[in-house]
Amino acid sequence: MHALRKNHPLRRIVLASAATVSGMVLLLSLKPHASPQNVLALPAPSGSASASSGTGSGGTGTRTVTGDTIQTRWGPVQVRITIKDRRLTDVTAVAYPTDNPRDQEINSFALPRLRTEALTAQSADIDTVSGATYTSDGYRQSLQSALDSAGG
Fold it and tell me: Quick one: which of 28, 76, 117, 140 has the fewest CB in 10 Å?
């Protein structure tokens, strides 16, 4: 006689409960990945951050700051930000991989998404674009260096 027949509803309940508990234990044992903020706390690779066209004082007015050039596996990534009245108003990628058609294809969809994320977040705490991991990481690091330079 089969153990899960209708005349044994208690066994069915016990098995379903055991499966649910096992699933929850496995789910809760997963470790979250490091957030972008934790990654950005690491020292940035050497490069130069430069500030240009500062107007006003004490963080008011408009400032344009260029972040560090970050060397990625596929080439350099560098961004320039514009801050107006302590708000991030523009992010422009000034250097990014363009050596081959695949780089151009990846960056044609990744860079606009990264720009939108940065302007929405008002920080470098942005998501990685799927398929453009290296560009996203370089973009985030260069953006953080520009924000650090603008703030200090």
Answer: 28
Can you give the C-alpha Rg of the chain in angstroms? 24
End-to-end CA distance of the chain: 76
- Which H/E stretch holds residue 75? strand 75-84
Alpha-carbon span 84 to 54, nearest angstrom: 10
Residue 56 region by backbone torsions, left for phi larger than 0, else alpha for psi between -120 and 50, else beta: left
What angle is formed at CA 142 by the lines to CA 96 and CA 38, rounded to 5 degrees? 125
Each residue of 70-103: pLDDT tens digit?
898 888 999 999 888 888 889 989 888 888 888 8
Local confidence band at 44 (pLDDT 50, 70, 90 cut-offs): very low
Fold of the domain spanning 36-151? Sufe protein. Chain: A (3.90.1010)
Give the tokens for residue 4.
Answer: 């899960």
Strand-strand pairing, 50-52 and 62-66: antiparallel
Name the residue ranges covered by the structural domains of the chain: 1-31, 36-151
